[in-house]
Amino acid sequence: MADLKLTDVGKTYGGTVEVLKHIDLDIEAGELIVFVGPSGCGKSTLLRMIAGLEKITAGTLDIAGQRVNDVPPAQRGIAMVFQSYALYPHMTVRDNMSFALQIAKKSKAEITEAVERAARMLQLTPYLDRLPKALSGGQRQRVAIGRAIVRDPKVFLFDEPLSNLDAALRVATRIEIAQLKEQMPDRTMIYVTHDQVEAMTLATRIVVLANKGIAQVGSPLELYERPKSEFVAQFIGSPAMNLLPGEITGTGMRTTVRLAGGGTAVSDVSTSDADMGMQVNVGVRPEDCTIARQAAVYSGKVALTEALGEVTLLHFDPDEHAQEPVIAKLPGIHKGLRGETVKLSVDPAKVHLFAQGTSLLYR
Amino acid sequence: MSPILQGVLTIIIGVGGCLAYFYGSNLVLDRVVFPARNDDQGRNIRRATMVRPWLFLLPAILALGLYLVYPVVGSFIRSLYDRSGSNFVGLGNYLEMFQESGFRVAVFNNFLWILFVPAASTFFGLLVAQLTDRLSWGAIAKSLIFMPMAISFVGASLIWKFVYAGDPAIGIINAIGAYFGAAPVDPLQIPFWNNFFIMIIMVWMQTGFAMVILSAALRGIPEETIEAAIIDGANPFQLFFKIKVPQIAGTIAVVWTTITFLTLKVFDIVYTMTGGNFDTDILPSYMMDYMFRDDGRATAVAFVIMVIVTPVMIYNIRQARKDV
Ligand SMILES: Nc1ncnc2c1ncn2[C@@H]1O[C@H](COP(=O)(O)OP(=O)(O)OP(=O)(O)O)[C@@H](O)[C@H]1O
Ligand SMILES: [Mg+2]
């Protein structure tokens, strides 16, 4: 129903503290966009600029084709769900949800209709006459979501809506949000989170923010399979991708890299003759590693194993060549590997190559 | 003995006495009364724990009993005797008093005071707190408004005596009047309204108090609820009256009632401004009229004041507790 267009958006606090710059982003109507990034990278700031709670100090923001830089929040057609719920503590659930409509001077019947429909959607009907303090955390967050729905906004903004909930409730509410999105396919949603699973499961597209700008935008699997940079590669996926330094020794449709640690990696990423001898980092996801008899990408002594049942994590001894100790994630249960020397190999299709932090795929 | 030495000695004896009492009484409890030894160890420790709070409370209870409960009872008994204090008159003092027009005027004025002063002080305090909230020079404005709090009632009254002074060369009101060619007036002699001119002094002093407390309360409102309301489309007035004020309603009630019983105790302002003349008496100043002349009557008034204050105070304490 509404598309957003951010053009060269930037934010400077107090004239000196630059938090974001050169943000260009097109969001299509009906998308669920997730902002992720390290703490303090400006996710909330960007969301609040879209909401109108924070002044946009550079660039322009258009919602549904209308320039909204100077439009007050209430007239932008947005609704926001806060991490702390931000319910009005002195009002009942019903009043919390109808406040915006009352302000907008909607008719009584219309308000009741809208509130009750939202309450049914979120299973809040039995709680309509309670005060927020008499609700559990999950119910409070649902009221906050209900308050947003009642306003019938074009764009929903969520700032870490689930991070105050416990693990089980987080999963349940996440699924509710996914269902909600399905019931309202034409509404645009922008969602800030720290949680990888939330980002991967909910998003149509993920926006990774870092270093005051956008590191990469793409569908969850695109970011996972074809990260543009080492930063994105390590940020998406858990445990983070292993990076092993090496030198290109064979080019062509397939690239061969001799690793500083002694192994040899083959990648499906193609290179040209000019790349011969280039210093690169080979990126290997822990879950793409398999145990090999010989001709390994990596071999090392297992310092620690973590058996989770469905998978087993192998933490290798710190390696003088890799920045971080290598981690492998093997399906199933593997006993007695601790202290052993293990060789790992990786499918060439899943070997990433990075030169100076950026992927060779995107040259 | 030099006064300084005397003072130091008093402090040493006082503080040392306290320490000795707390240390000694606990020692006696633990070593002699319920020693934590042998078979009874567990039971004795439990008993000692039950007694201990009372050891700490005892001095306070005694002091309060001596200086609070005894005077209340004593006053009540005194109010049942006549001026000389030797003849029992029952409720005579009260009956006589209720029939006196001066008393009725004082009661009426007192109700004006408890309606107007807390309402006006809280209102202005809230207004200032809100208006100065995000102002760069708000802190200066606030300290100026807070300053009258530091003046004594008598001092404040003297200042306002100058404000109301009849001579246009002294009183600002008459100076302004004179500028527009009006004849000098004495605001303190205008019937009925003179009460309000006196109350303004109290409002002037208490606004600072209300402002400080309410300003802290306003700061305590979660920022997100305000932002949520902004997104919901509330304008500044709706934001203030529908989101902010309800959230600090408890604090407003506490401020209101605190000022209410401050107001019920005030006597100095009226005494200094008019001495209770021109129908401006309130109960405490009315009481002072009788003090030392007819202690029976004066204690009876004191008792009426207490009866009026008590419910306000109970409400205040309840509200303050609820707020926490
Ligand atoms: N009012 C302000 N003045 C100056 N700097 C600010 C202000 N508000 C936020 N910042 C800075 O802006 C940066 C981005 O803050 P923001 O809250 O957007 O981070 P975030 O990505 O949401 O972090 P988190 O994941 O921890 O919520 C931070 O470095 C913060 O210190
Ligand atoms: Mg944030």
TrEMBL record, chain A:
This is Maltose ABC transporter ATP-binding protein /trehalose ABC transporter ATP-binding protein /sucrose ABC transporter ATP-binding protein. One of its GO terms (molecular function) is ATP binding. It comes from the Bacteria. InterPro entries: AAA+_ATPase, ABC_transporter-like_ATP-bd, ABC_transporter-like_CS, ABC_transpr_MalK-like, ABC_transpr_MalK/UgpC-like, Mo/tungstate-bd_C_term_dom, NA-bd_OB-fold, OB_MalK-like. Residues 4-236 form the ABC transporter domain. GO terms for cellular component: ATP-binding cassette (ABC) transporter complex, substrate-binding subunit-containing; maltose transport complex. Belongs to the ABC transporter superfamily. Keywords: ATP-binding, Cell inner membrane, Cell membrane, Membrane, Nucleotide-binding, Transport. SMART domains: AAA.
From TrEMBL, chain B:
One of its GO terms (biological process) is transmembrane transport. Residues 107-316 form the ABC transmembrane type-1 domain. It is a multi-pass membrane protein. The chain crosses the membrane at residues 6-29, 50-70, 111-132, 144-163, 196-218, 248-267, 298-317. One of its GO terms (cellular component) is plasma membrane. InterPro entries: MetI-like, MetI-like_sf, UgpAE/MalFG_permease. It comes from the Bacteria. Its main location: membrane. It is found in: Cell membrane. Pfam families: BPD_transp_1. Keywords: Cell membrane, Membrane, Transmembrane, Transmembrane helix, Transport. Belongs to the binding-protein-dependent transport system permease family. This is Maltose ABC transporter membrane protein /trehalose ABC transporter membrane protein /sucrose ABC transporter membrane protein. It comes from Salipiger aestuarii.
